[in-house]
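[Automated response] Your request has been received and processed.

Submitted sequence:
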Amino acid sequence: MTATAVPERVTARPPAPARGPRGRATLYWIAKHAVAIALAIMFLGPLVFIGLTAVMSDQQALTSQLWPTTWNWDNFSDIFEKAPLLTWIRNTLMYSLLATAFMLLSSIPVAYALARFRFRGRKLAFLLVITMMMLPPQVVAVPVYLVWARFHLTGTLWPLIIPMLLGDAFSIFLLRQFLVTIPREYSDAARVDGCGEFRTLIRVILPMARPAIAAVALFQFFYCWNDYYGPLLYAGTDLDNWTLSLGLAAFRSVHRVQWNLTMAATVLAMAPVIVVFFFAQKVFIEGVKLTGVK
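Generated structure:
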């Protein structure tokens, strides 16, 4: 008798589950948030380092330790005793607020005229605005400085504030790009109701252009708050007219070995800008999106 070979039992493996749309969405969500977390760490890392160094002692700030062994909150009060920080903050606020208000007062009518009126030379005027955006301020620094010197305004911040009454090219450009997207039917309906151009601008156009106005106002405010070149050029000789940017540079040169005090002063200089952006980020992002996309 011949033995019959018993065939081996082959266990079939279950097929690998197909990766459907839900699996792809999960992987995409993980990849997208991983990049966001990496970027957040990259941007927030220097801010965390500044904040931790601001509460260190003088000796620890010169070491490679990253976490404070003692929390010296009195560093924030010491800088007010060692530097006229309140004067610098007052001058910076005056410069930023007045320049922003003057810019809005002068740039909005110009942007409205370029976006709504049909007149000869309108394209040439808009081309000049774009040209002024491309012109570096250092090119005209010497002749403009001589003009303000003849008016005896050098040594103050007024040469930086008064020109804002003549408009800002970047703000005019952004506002004009937004105003051209507003349908003309709104302004035509206002004219039918008896509104002139000024009332149409105030009562109809400005409420609809609120996001763009907020965006250009924040741009101007942040620029003036962080401006170093302009105050150095015009107010560098008068200590009573220094802004935060000039004061921090001088404070760092005097207290170059006390990095904890320098970082504490830096935190106080950054805090107002961070707070303003935190409360206005929604309208700011909306304004930038609308002026850039439409």
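Summary generated for your ticket: The longest helix spans residues 259-293. The chain has a mean pLDDT of 82.
If you did not submit this request, please reply to this message.
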